[in-house]
Amino acid sequence: MFEQLKARLEGCVYTVFTPFDDHLEIDYASLEKYLTHMSRTGARKFYVMAYNSRYSQLTHEEIRRLNEFCIRTVKKLDANHVVIVGDPIHCSTKESIEFARHARDTGADLISLIVREKYFTDDQIMDHFAEVGRSSRMPILVHEMPFLSGYDGKQIHWPLSLFEALPSVPEIVALKEDAKDFGTTCAALKLEPRIRVIIAGRKSSFMQYRPYGAKAYLNGISMLDARIGETFWKAYERGDEQMIRFILDRLEAPFFDKCAAKYGWHRVNKALLQAAGFMHRRDRMPLKSLSDGEYEEVRRVYLEIAGPMKELIGS
User: Among 115, 163, 280, 305, which has the minimal tally of Cβ within 10 Å of its Cβ?
Assistant: First the structure.
């Protein structure tokens, strides 16, 4: 079962963005509209995750309801779609187990586990993953991010020894690599093919890992339409450099260079989706959404890439 699941995680994985209405409650109508659009344009792998899905702005009960809504909505669109949901950003192993069981019982394919407790030892982290796996029997996607050292509070990348230990937990089938550091990402890719490694960041950065066997990535600009992500993946597989350059230069670069680099990925992703008509950019404090003037810059970039996008995917 795990081998088939890993194979299904190849290619573009589409993160889920959580919209809020004008009362700052989760806007489930807009979320359903967005999930439906992504499925209809070719998305097959959906990832409700810690930061893109705004877990830090939600109560744990809201996260549970969001997870369940996304699972049921996506599986209703197509029972064969892969759905990954997460546990809260800060919680105990006990609560991670509860979220994993809830994900299992509501039909998710994987539980994404993020550990934001301070790091002391590899055993500390591995015991957590092993306990969640044993207690839930749920396939696990490890959300790898730099740790804060429990000794001096400094940010540190995962040690190689921790990557090497991951295969000892049979339920771990995938890893979301989020260090955005070349050496760390290459170390993570050594887990392939035992563990599917999903690389975060822009597509142009992903390209540097082709010689190291990279097989999966997060959507980025493909959040607008899954046909961008699926076209890119086919071009990546067959070595179609002309198509790859078109997507990187005409679609990705304007957004990342003019918007994400200036205002930060997490403040511009929903602004771009607002420009495309899917949801409002508003967020709960302490994350403040872009001002009207800043949003206008994102809207202009959306209009700039709308032509090339239409050229790529049609009307």
Answer: 280
Length of the chain: 315
Cα(120)–Cα(82) distance, integer angstroms? 34
pLDDT in tens, 132-168: 999 999 999 999 999 999 999 999 999 999 999 999 9
- Tokens 């000794």 belong to which residue? 151
Q: How far apart are CA 186 and CA 212, in angstroms?
A: 7
pTM recorded for the entire structure: 0.96
- Report the C-alpha gap between 195 and 192 in whole angstroms: 5
Contact 270, 284 (CB under 8 A): no
- Measure CA 81 to chain center: 15
> CA 201, CA 273: separation in Å to the nearest integer?
18
> Per residue in 237-259, pLDDT tens?
999 999 999 999 999 999 999 99
Structure tokens at 132: 């969640």
Contact 36, 223 (CB under 8 A): no
- The CB density around residue 82, as the number of other CB atoms within 10 Å, is 20
- Rounded Cα–Cα distance for residues 45 and 36 (Å): 13
* Euclidean distance between CA atoms 83 and 107, whole angstroms: 8
Residue 175 pairs in a beta bridge with 142, 197
CB-based contact 159:165 (threshold 8 Å)? no
Which of the residues in the chain have pLDDT under 50?
none
pLDDT of residue 1: 64
Tokens 């919209």 correspond to 19
- In DSSP terms, 172 is beta-bridged to 140
